[in-house]
């Protein structure tokens, strides 16, 4: 499925360039601005410059679309699209060498990759600009949004799929949930990753073996973009006071913006420094694990 999404993102970007270029060609020919395609020998310099301009703009748009639709690692897909564009441009140089001034097809081939890459960079910058200042910070920050809710944001130097798996694979979740000597283990972490499925991750004190149980129910799963689950005391499932955690993952050209929002019924004072310090310590462990397991 991921491969199909990657192919779809590439095809979408390529189609944008082709259809916009051909559409503009047709429009300008119908209005008499440009001669028919079959009479390219009539093109003069300003006409070729105009065609080069809008084709370059559309190539930038194509790179943006591919980055926008990429399920993960948009920079890699943008680079692939740029290479394909360059190859197509070289083919155009060979096929159209005698159809117009030589500089025109050469310019199209030379500008293909940087134009696509520029589109990807524009996506990256506009996407980051839409985030809050706390998301832009490379250090996890906490923003109180109410007496009993918090929002924590952090940027990880890893692709979205890898960060998603830190939350959804037991063997990886256990690497960061908790801070030694009190932390989850692979043996005490279980996940039934489906809506309505249960998860459990008991923290074990490595010094005396005592356990602190954590668990809950998955409410929404949109891989690898969004995860919603409850956090509750497995020893008292009848207790209606549950925490609801929503984690969103945004791919930013190879890095991932992760935003975690938690709301529930813990005492208001527990949403201050203790919770902030705890989650920041958790996510520092996640950062180290991702850096050491590329």
Labels describing this entry:
10-stranded antiparallel β-sheet; Alpha-D-Glucose-1,6-Bisphosphate, Chain A, domain 4; 2 domains; alpha+beta; elongated; 294 residues
The major beta sheet can be summarized as: 10 strands, antiparallel
Shape descriptor: elongated
CATH architecture of the largest domain: 2-Layer Sandwich
If you compute it from the alpha carbons, what radius of gyration comes out, rounded to the nearest whole angstrom?
26 Å
> What is the chain-wise order of helices and strands?
HHHHHEEHHEEEEEEEEH
Give the CATH level 1 class of the largest domain. Answer: Alpha Beta
Count all strands and give the number.
10
Outline the secondary-structure elements:
Elements: H1 2-30, H2 45-69, H3 74-95, H4 103-129, H5 133-136, E1 141-146, E2 149-156, H6 160-168, H7 170-173, E3 178-179, E4 182-191, E5 198-205, E6 211-212, E7 215-222, E8 226-231, E9 243-252, E10 255-263, H8 273-292
Antiparallel strand pairs: 1-2, 2-10, 3-4, 4-5, 5-6, 5-7, 7-8, 8-9, 9-10
Helix pairs in contact: 1-2, 1-3, 2-3, 2-4, 3-4
